[in-house]
Design brief:
Elements (H helix, E strand, L loop, with lengths): L1 H5 L4 H4 L10 E3 L11 E3 L3 H14 L2 H7 L2 H11 L5 H10 L1 H21 L9
Antiparallel strand pairs: 1-2
Helix pairs in contact: 5-7, 6-7
């Protein structure tokens, strides 16, 4: 697994060229997933999250480009980043600054939602 992180793509190398599918079924090769489930339906959120976790943790540069879709990765990142190791998260956010931005935006939105929900209640005169 150490070789993966040394082989992590930089934003310049991929220019966010994550061309993986946005729908359908993805079958991962043996070098990415050597036991357990190897086929993932992108139409099922849990399966899609599992696929992305696996590819981020075990995939090589070409696997990221081939199996991950930029829009899906950005949409899932605020949750996905909590399901992977800190090291993998840091490597990916360093390589793709838009991921860190997506996480910060989601956190700010969540904080704003809490602030609105916990604000003073309007009184109603009858």
């Amino acid at each position: 697994m150490a070789a993966l992180h040394a082989d992590a793509p930089t934003a310049e190398e991929t220019d966010w060229d994550l061309t993986g599918p946005a729908d359908g079924t993805v079958d991962l090769p043996l070098h990415v997933v050597w036991s357990g489930r190897s086929s993932f339906s992108l139409d099922r959120p849990k399966a899609r999250m599992s696929l992305y976790r696996t590819v981020l943790a075990e995939g090589q540069r070409d696997d990221l480009i081939r199996f991950l879709n930029k829009d899906l990765l950005l949409a899932q990142w605020p949750v996905l980043r909590r399901l992977i190791s800190r090291h993998i998260r840091d490597v990916r956010e360093d390589a793709f600054p838009e991921l860190a931005q997506a996480a910060m935006t989601a956190a700010a939105d969540q904080d704003a939602g809490r602030a609105i929900g916990s604000g003073p209640q309007a009184s109603v005169d009858h």
